[in-house]
Write a structure and sequence with these properties.
CATH topology of one domain: Arc Repressor Mutant, subunit A
Strand content: under 5%
Order of helices and strands: HHHHHH
Helix content: 40-55%
Distance between the termini: 62 Å
Structural class: mainly alpha
CATH class of one domain: Mainly Alpha
Length: 146
């Protein structure tokens, strides 16, 4: 096995992480010993994730997924336009066509960003009731005794 090749356990660890498992779960599911304290498992899993060839494999998995599954903005716009203009055997509802067009408009920046303003009664300031500010004084705090 070459120095850059992953062991079967390391490869399973990478695939487990890529599928969304926590480091600890990925470590145990890859076949590494679970007979350790949770803290020890976390340390070992973190160390394994930091091994350069493991990190490189994870980056490669992420890059492959990104290039095979993501569409460019132009591709998404083309697809939505195709959906909006397609003659279906069972035609989409007017609502579905409108949603596709609205989504295209959003992608084109046709709508102003939504703004939400938070105000109190009658448009006045928001009243904060029962709020208590607590400060921690340390020796580094200016003006503290010490």
């Amino acid at each position: 096995m070459g120095s850059n090749a992953l062991s079967p356990k390391q490869e399973r660890f990478c695939l487990n992480l890529f599928q969304g498992m926590s480091q600890r779960e990925a470590y145990v599911q890859a076949g590494y010993s679970a007979r350790q304290s949770p803290a020890s498992l976390d340390v070992r899993a973190c160390e394994l994730a930091a091994v350069s060839k493991v990190a490189v494999r994870l980056d490669k998995l992420k890059a492959e997924a990104k290039t095979t599954s993501s569409m460019t903005v132009e591709q998404r716009q083309d697809k939505l336009a195709e959906i909006a203009n397609t003659e279906f055997k069972t035609p989409p509802s007017a609502k579905e066509v409108t949603q596709a067009i609205a989504e295209l408009n959003k992608m084109d920046g046709a709508y102003a960003p939504a703004q939400v303003e938070h105000t109190g009664p009658g448009g006045g300031p928001i009243q904060i009731v029962g709020f208590q500010f607590v400060a921690t004084v340390t020796e580094d705090t200016p003006g503290s005794p010490g």
